Amino acid sequence: MAEPELQTEEPEVEGDEEQAITAALVEAVAETIRTGDAERLRTLAGDLHEADLGELVAALPADLRPGLVELLGEDFHFAALTEVDESVRLELLEDLPTETIVEGLRDLDSDDAVYILEDMEDEDRAEILERLPLPDRVALTRGLDFPEESAGRLMQTDFVAVPPFWTVGRTIDHLREMEDAPETFYEIFVIDPYFKLIGTVPLDRILRSTRNTRIEKILNEDVRSFEATQDREEVARSFQRYNLVSAPVTDPDDRLVGVLTVDDIVDVIQQETEEDLRALGGVMGDEELSDTVVETARGRFPWLVVNLGTAFLAASVIGLFTKSLEHMVALAVLMPIVASMGGNAGTQAMTVTVRALATRELGRRNSGRIVVREVLVGAANGVLLAVLLGAGAGLWFKNLDLGAVIASALIVNMVVAGLFGTIIPLTFHKLKLDPAVASGVFLTTFTDVSGFFGFLGLATWWFGL
Amino acid sequence: MAEPELQTEEPEVEGDEEQAITAALVEAVAETIRTGDAERLRTLAGDLHEADLGELVAALPADLRPGLVELLGEDFHFAALTEVDESVRLELLEDLPTETIVEGLRDLDSDDAVYILEDMEDEDRAEILERLPLPDRVALTRGLDFPEESAGRLMQTDFVAVPPFWTVGRTIDHLREMEDAPETFYEIFVIDPYFKLIGTVPLDRILRSTRNTRIEKILNEDVRSFEATQDREEVARSFQRYNLVSAPVTDPDDRLVGVLTVDDIVDVIQQETEEDLRALGGVMGDEELSDTVVETARGRFPWLVVNLGTAFLAASVIGLFTKSLEHMVALAVLMPIVASMGGNAGTQAMTVTVRALATRELGRRNSGRIVVREVLVGAANGVLLAVLLGAGAGLWFKNLDLGAVIASALIVNMVVAGLFGTIIPLTFHKLKLDPAVASGVFLTTFTDVSGFFGFLGLATWWFGL
């Protein structure tokens, strides 16, 4: 979908600003897939990291993607599919023979396999699971049984667990012989005969202890573990707050069932902040860069309709003052300024509040303080800006009374902005609704209505219109 | 600064929604500091994780914070200071005796010590460095010499490096004897006699290899390493993209100088997204929840002044049409709707573009496609919303011509919104300016001007006003 004309007009950019997969590489790969030259394709794309391979998949025209997978064969690492947009992944999986998918999934860690399987159609997924070897099938089915967005979906089910009475030497010997160890791991778990978690030992501590040291002597008992059904956002917050690199996952009976590693969590942390950012910008969380015009337009439409409704509400407030506007057209010219400044100041307060709630920096302990602070900030900046606005408007229309009226209306609206910019997200949070999603619409409704009503109402009264 | 009245009125929330440090604990700790009961303080706060201890520090009144540090003594882990807002940290460090700070820093990993020292006054920092033991002083001074926001500032200078001809057995013996190993580590580095990096070996691979395996047989040669002067944002993107847990840092001569671990990088990833989110909301990156009213108001004021300027610009466009407004006051009632819808649709397009640029999902290869897509999305939603708006306005004012005029103006403004919502951030990016910071102001200027001019201009022409 590249636009060659546009691109050749663009100036050169430094290497670090460049995307890893260049347009030239995409073109070369596309050409090679068309000719079916497997050897050349392996030279071009066989050594790519799974993240880069994913970017290549997404950049190729959809009809060539299955060819890439088939021609690369064993050199196509299916983990690349965890790096592409959901729509790209589902379309490609739809086009691939079941056998290819089964082969690809067998080489993956269980968390990656679950990630790829979870959004597929039930029927297709069942067909694939059926053809996987029993142990893989059991592990994946178990992972898929946990709720969406839970720790259980993110966890890796291969891990190393030993009893506390083993020595370091025996543990190391066990590791050397183990067949189904995970690809990489950072700590081992210590369990009792019922598989209940007793503690963890980081690998560096094993390496630094003598062979005859008993595991129970070096284990961490104070472990932050998570339940498999726990929400991944909560888990991510803990990882970030307590600087975790990996953590055990347990079932309701405290038995060890898997391990979470920070590389999966990093993406969750990023996604949650990203979702707030998008929500504040009026964009749905599931919109993707690869979406078509129709998909994108459809996703954004509902929010715009809601905004149309609130805009009509604001207009109806203006409609109350048509007489005043007819007598004094300067009011029409100036009124958007008061509303717009309130909207901007309110958005500042709201942005800070929404994020502090999301990171739990803001809670019951300090919510009172933030409301008071934002109201005072609104008042302070309101007074300063009112001087500028009042003078500007007064001089423009050579009417100092008009300047005084608009200045007063601005101060009121800036206080309203600070108050509702904090109260609205705090209220949503208390109602257990996501404050990022709807706060903006409510806020601008309040600041628009208060801006128009305050200014036009005050002017009508002052000038006796 | 808690507001007890507000809090008692709040309903109970679940434990997971609760902040880790409750108002009750803060009160108990404050009381204990006042009475100077060190033993009780250790019971209350001695076992807290450094992140929770940091939250406690921030929640205490400023004058009690030095007392907490002094009374806890060795049980106050200075890493807690890396978890609090900069203003809280600097104020506390100002109030603590140099000797206490020196003792606290000695126990820290070098990256945490650099983090605490970097924002202090040059004079205070020099005094502290002077009193530290020579090896610590050299390591920290070196870290502080790297540019702000560079990999060198984030890295930890203690690491394990061995020559390639060592065996796994000798490496393990070395680790068991090592005195100054870092607190935790996940891989060891392989270097040549000149300290140049040859490769890395993850700890699990050492544990899984037999004692007589030579390190060169099991090392990763394909290592993602970073230069100490590299920007931390770029480093964070690589960590996230390639799922890194730790990575070596080298000097310009390729010599190993330190190691970066993902726990430090997680915060960078979060901060960079957070900065974009704040910038889009018109809030400066360095604003903190602990800031006072004056600090907050001062930080937000410049952005509001810029917005006042653009609001005047939009008002001056309306000023061109005072005659039309006098003849047809319905125009004044309806005109904010067209401007507001354009602003909202443009913000949607801008939000998506700014983030895709930040994550490098969007680059030269696909920037043409996104502009075209957003213009078409604007046109498509514009047509649909124009039907609603046109019908609504036409019925409200019983004037179908007015409905047709506002419908046409909306379509134009929605296309303008899609075009400038993408073009503005892409242009900032190409000029190597942060697209998140100023895009919003420019965008709403365009959508306001185009909204008012389009609607009032079209109406003036149509109705011959």
From TrEMBL, chains A, B:
Record key words, sorted: CBS domain, Cell membrane, Magnesium, Membrane, Metal-binding, Transmembrane, Transmembrane helix, Transport
Keyword ATP-binding: no
Membrane topology: Multi-pass membrane protein
Subcellular location: Cell membrane; Membrane
Residue ranges of every copy of the CBS domain listed in the record: 219-275
Superkingdom to which the source organism belongs: Bacteria
InterPro entries: CBS_dom, CBS_dom_sf, Mg_transptr_MgtE_intracell_dom, MgtE_N_sf, MgtE_transporter, SLC41_membr_dom, SLC41_membr_dom_sf
SMART domains documented for this protein: CBS, MgtE_N
Ranges annotated as spanning the membrane: 301-322, 328-354, 375-397, 403-428, 440-463
Signal peptide positions on this chain: none
Pfam families for the chain: CBS (PF00571), MgtE (PF01769), MgtE_N (PF03448)
Family note: Belongs to the SLC41A transporter family.
Protein purpose: Acts as a magnesium transporter.
NCBIfam families the record matches: mgtE
Subunit text: Homodimer.
Protein name (database record): Magnesium transporter MgtE
Organism: Flaviflagellibacter deserti
Lineage: Bacteria, Pseudomonadati, Pseudomonadota, Alphaproteobacteria, Hyphomicrobiales
